[in-house]
Amino acid sequence: MNEAEGPRFYGRRSGKRLRSFALARLNEMLPRLTIPVPEQGQTVVPSELFAKQVDAVWLEIGFGGGEHLAAQAKLYPQIGHIGCEVFRNGISSLMGHLDDDDLDSVRVFAEDARRLFPALPNGCLQRVFLLFPDPWPKTRHAQRRFVGPDNLNSLARLMAPLAELRVASDDPIYAAWAKRHLEQHSQFRQIQVTQNREELPPDWPVTRYEAKLLAGHPPTFFRYQRV
Length: 227
Fold this sequence. Notes:
Helix content is 27%, strand content 20%. The protein is of the alpha/beta class and 227 residues long.
C-alpha cells in the first residue's frame, strides 16, 4: 500500500452477508452520515461535519456493533460524535441503534481512523474512546496494536487540553501493553485504571462485546487525560 492510501489495515472489513432489511437500512442511512476519506493535504474541521451546532466533538475508534456510540449520542445530544469503523456489519449494526434524533449528532468514518487523523486540526477532540480493540496477541503482531507511540502521538495532537481518553480491554497482555505505553507517554496522565465496573462513571455503558466477555477475562478500564 502506498502513502496516498494511508496506513496498512489488517482487520476484517466484512462478515456474514447482511439481511435485506439491514442492507437497505445501511444504504439509506450511511450516505447521510459518512465522512469521506480526506484528500492529501485536506483539512477536516469536525464541528462543521454536523447538521447542527455542537458543544464539543468526541471520537470513537473502532465502534464495533455501535452500542456505545449510540448510547453516547442519546446521553449527549449536544455533542458531535464521530465513529470510525471499517467492519461493514458493525456499521450496519450501528444504524439499527440510531434514532432519527441521533442523526444530526453522529457521523461515521467507514475507514481506518488513522486515515482521518492527518486531516484533523490540533486540539479538536474533547474525548476519545478505544474500547476492546483487536489485541493482536502474537508477539510478532504486537506492533499492530493501536495503543503505541505513533498513535498516542497523534491523539495527543488531536486532543484538547484536559480531554479524556477511555480505553478498555479484556486481554491481559493488551491491558499490560496499553498501561505501559500510556504511562510512558508524557502527554497523558492517569485518571483511573480499574477492573471494577462499579467504579466507572455512569456514562460508560456496557457494550455487547463486554457483556459476552469473549476473551474470558475481566476487562481493564483506563481513563487518561491529555495534559
